[in-house]
Write a structure and sequence with these properties.
The protein contains 7 helices and 13 strands. It is an alpha+beta fold. The chain folds into 2 domains: 105 residues, no CATH class; 122 residues, no CATH class. The strands form 4 sheets. The protein has a 6-stranded antiparallel beta barrel. β6 and β7 form a beta hairpin. α5 packs across α6.
Length: 241
């Protein structure tokens, strides 16, 4: 960021990045920034389009790619979570983060079908090892490249020498498994995993959730074009004193 060349710097970790980077000391501009955020006439809102980079947006708004720093200074969520991912990149990341298969059952899995157990589908002959369960939603997550049948297939295993089985009511990729359910008012609600899920509830998948989180990053505060030079001068004065 050429604007900050020579400014005092400190170590920051943005979003979920593994390593810290040197960035201008944010504590030095707090009073000025508070004044900007409390004076709505100084900024407006912008919605980041899919695939737009910080320098793209900076050039579009200010005719220079070098004002991208202002987006991070004005928006806590960008500093904490990073710039929104391109949709195709996001889906790739979600699929990589959730690589397993998942099945839903209304059977009792509270004490059975434990992580580490090898399971087999009776019709598909799919085989895999359980990596985790969600007893609150009746879901079992299985490490396998095989596909289980989505309805009516029996999933079986042997635990402690005892044969056990349940009926699969649905099967899907882990990324499309249910993260939680919400009601018509948008409230997160619990279900009875032993019963069919009421049609009045909407399942929110892992993909839905992280797509929503990514989209929330797209709405940002931006300085009005006529205020950029003034705010830049004030920041430079504070950060170089």
């Amino acid at each position: 960021m050429p604007y900050f060349k020579g400014f005092p710097q400190t170590s920051y970790v943005f979003g979920n990045e593994e390593y810290s980077v040197l960035f201008p000391n944010l504590t030095l501009y707090s009073d000025i920034l508070d004044g900007i955020l409390n004076a709505e006439g100084l900024y407006t809102r912008y919605y980041i389009k899919d695939g737009e980079r910080p320098d793209n947006v900076s050039f579009k708004l200010y005719n220079t790619p070098d004002a991208a720093w202002s987006f991070y200074l004005l928006n806590d969520h960008l500093r904490e979570q990073g710039w929104p991912l391109k949709e195709t990149s996001l889906n790739t990341k979600i699929d990589e983060s959730f690589p397993n298969k998942a099945v839903r059952t209304t059977g009792d899995i509270y004490e059975d079908f434990l992580p580490g157990t090898t399971v087999t589908g009776s019709s598909s002959n799919a085989v895999g090892k359980i990596v985790k369960r969600d007893v609150n939603t009746g879901q079992i997550f299985i490490n396998t490249s095989d596909d289980f049948q989505s309805t009516g297939e029996t999933l079986y295993c042997t635990e402690d020498g005892v044969f056990k089985s349940i009926t699969i009511t649905s099967a899907y990729n882990e990324a499309d498994a249910v993260f939680y359910y919400k009601d018509s008012s948008g409230n997160q609600v619990s279900i009875d995993p032993g019963l069919s899920t009421p049609s009045s509830l909407t399942p929110i998948t892992y993909r839905d959730y992280y797509t929503s989180q990514n989209n929330d990053l797209r709405s940002i505060k931006v300085l009005r074009k006529e205020m950029l030079a003034k705010v830049s001068a004030e920041l430079k004065k504070v950060m170089t004193e």
